[in-house]
Amino acid sequence: MTTTEHxxxxxxxxxxxxxxxxxxxxxxxxYVAAEIEPRWQAxxxxxxxxxxxxxxxxxxxxxxxxxxxxxxxxxxxxxxYIVTPTDAIARYRRMHGDNVFLPIGFDAFGxxxxxxxxARGVHPRDWTLRGMxxxxxxxxSMGVTFDWNAExxxxxxxxxxxNQWIFLRFLERGLAYRKMAPVDWCPKDQVVLxxxxxxxxxxVCWRCGTPVVKRDLEQWFFxxxxxADELLDFAGIDWPEPIRVSQTNWIGRSTGAxxxxxxxxxxxxxxxxxxxxxxxxxxTVFGATFMVLAPEHPLVAKLTAPERxxxxxxxxxxxxxxxxxxxxxxxxxKTGVPIxxxxxNPVNGELIPIFIADYVLASYGTGAxxxxxxxxxxxxxxxKRFGLPIRRVVVxxxxxxxxxxxxxxxxxxxxxxxxxxxxxxxxxxxxGWHDIVGLLADHGKGGxxxxxRQRDWLISRQRYWGTPIPIVYCDECGMVxxxxxxxxxxxxxxxxxMPTGDSPLKTATDWLNVPCPSCGGSARRxxxxxxxxxxxxxxxxxxxxxxxxxxxxxxxxxxxxxPVDQYTGGAEHxxxxxxxxxxxxxxxxxxxxxxxxxxxxRLFNQGQILGADGERMSKSRGNVQDPDELVxxxxxxxxxxxxxxxxPWDQGGPWNPQGIEGVHKFLRRVWTLALDAHGTEPGxxxxxxxxxxxxxxxxxxxxxxxxxxxxxDVTEDFEGFRWNTMVAKLMELTNTLFHYRGTSVAExxxxxxxxxxxxxxxxxxxxxxxxxxxxxxxxxxxxxxxxIHAERWPEVDPSAIVDATRxxxxxxxxxxxxxxxxxxxxxxxxxxxxxxxxxxxxxxLGGSDPARIIHVGDPAKLINIVVRR
Length: 869
Description:
Layout: H1 5-8, E1 16-18, E2 24-26, H2 33-46, E3 61-66, H3 77-95, E4 99-101, E5 103-106, H4 111-120, H5 124-141, E6 147-153, H6 157-173, E7 176-186, E8 191-193, E9 198-199, E10 204-205, E11 213-222, H7 228-231, H8 241-251, E12 254-263, E13 274-279, E14 290-293, H9 300-303, H10 309-319, H11 324-328, E15 337-344, E16 351-356, E17 368-371, H12 377-386, E18 394-396, E19 416-418, H13 429-442, E20 446-451, E21 457-458, E22 460-461, E23 471-474, E24 478-481, H14 509-512, E25 513-515, E26 522-525, E27 529-530, H15 539-543, H16 555-561, E28 566-570, H17 576-590, E29 603-606, E30 608-610, H18 627-634, H19 636-645, E31 652-654, H20 660-675, H21 696-720, H22 723-738, H23 749-762, H24 767-780, H25 798-801, E32 805-812, E33 815-823, H26 828-836, H27 839-845, E34 852-856, E35 862-866
Parallel strand pairs: 3-4, 3-28, 5-6, 14-16, 28-29, 30-31, 32-35
Antiparallel strand pairs: 1-2, 7-8, 7-11, 9-10, 11-21, 12-13, 12-15, 12-20, 14-17, 15-16, 18-19, 22-27, 23-24, 23-26, 25-26, 32-33, 34-35
Helix pairs in contact: 2-24, 4-5, 18-19, 19-20, 19-22, 20-22, 20-24, 21-22, 21-23, 22-23, 23-24
């Protein structure tokens, strides 16, 4: 079958001009990206070039994933910064023969859509769908090789049905549960606020400006803490060290002891209530001179003396207005109030006063601490402020324990001993640690234990635009899971989006009030929706079977394709998304849905493109760079290359368009090299001549050496995601080749190999221009069309990288007269022939014949021609 001119991508004929020999050749028209790029994007779509055959077992599988976008309606240049190199990886891997799967979807639930509904009077679904359609167009304009057949949108019931199914399986296994937990509450609007809705240092409601307080509500959790130890194991995955450290610190595994203090009896309560604390230094228990409870601790109300109640309640109210970050800040002075009760220290029976203070959180540890001010900076500051005793119980050996303390001693040395610690005084601190814990265990007052900083994942959100939680509440049956055959529980349309901030689901009475699935009586639906991080905790599995009807995941496909080979995205997701993704993978494994234990084999975090003002890009700041403007002016390939060239991918930085003209000029030079090898640069007096000192053979070797050195380096840069140096090396090669444009070398095979290799190396980063140039070269050679992106990545020829030439100084009777550049492997006879043909050498000989020609070194590093005068 003959390939048609249209299929070959034949360029439009252009005006001809005479060449230097008087013949004719095609004039090279100007590089116009706007004419080339849409044509090739349409061609790729028509030929289904980027669709992956997931059942292909002949080629190695390579699952490449980038974090899917939120459909805000517009891509900014930061999105391009993430997606462009990821697409280059995909194209590069395909050139190595891999069967690459690069899917795309939309993280389509979330609060911004609900806010848009209130502000613009548009339904969140309509606002989201419009944003998705606009972003599809923008993503396609980048020339990215996404497999759109795999697209998912998390707001589609076809997807979130399976969020609900997974929730029910977690509920059956005890991984989902409901309990009371604090939320941010606006007392004026009487609504729960998301974290994003609490504004400013004074923590006020974003709608009405009322100070926000904490309030306890029953909410849904996933038991991520059940996997804490497994989440600390990163064996077998190649993740950046900062991500592993962040997750390790977030989990916060600590080995220590639980110690049981008891409330002392007094006039208003009988005492005896256990107050459990966790400490990593049980050897300091004799130094506890007071106890601190979190303001939210359940014993505060019971133990507070009547005369202290007013002050305590006022303090609790103020503490619950603050965020945890504010409460844990080391920069603010310590505050607190006594509750009018005492606790009994279990090791010595000493009565110590109980305070509440906001630097202790109910969500950390047990919500209570034994305060040892001599050995804890926060306790030291608190004791100084309130005039409480400071008793030193651990000192380096030989140090005076009675010396005045100007700051807490928190260091650890190998020779520490216990002091002021009863029968344990004088013992080495490590021995005392274990002996004291043993004493506590013997008396039922504690023991060694492990605790974690991490808390279970609160998934309840009191808003509309999210996955409905599939639970109903019946007066007779209590909490009832929605049966699987009634899934999905879809979001209702007839809701009112009111500026009060109350959940719109509460206004959908027909949806809200339903028969109980168990008894048939009156029941009401759960109006909380799921945290949108649930959507992003398993979406890559759904990509492999986006329309599967009888389950969330096609196990056969997951076994073949997962874990994901390469994941790219922002480091800002170090804990939330990436931790939840690992938890979901392990939990799905345990309920028998998948077989692996880790979601992503390799992870790379690109940096973040900031606005020109150094702040994160956002419409509200007015610092967003619209890529459409740049594409209209320069083309997608220029924008892609510029983003890859602007610096190391893992660093990012403020947006600065300076330099994009230089990248565009580089592409124009590639265009010229590929289409007009015989042309010359206007005004160049040496145009068409080989560089001084080079003959054709030397030039051929130099070109081939430059090509294969570049190929070696560019290959290494692709493997290491060093895009900026990759582009720089392609620019260097282009500059080298320009020196030989219009010379006799441009007629040779080495030149053709150089241009072909340059285009193939450039193709993953600049897919449109290379496809166009490749097509034109095939037409010129009367060859059938095939995509450059289907070419195999070239192999480096090691022999070409060996120094191809050497410079040899030439002396006549010991005086330097010339230097010649010759092929490295040239014979002595050939070297002499070249030397004797040089004008400078013949002039120095003055017509005399050489008596001898001496080669110094092997191979010759110097030639000395001896002439008898």
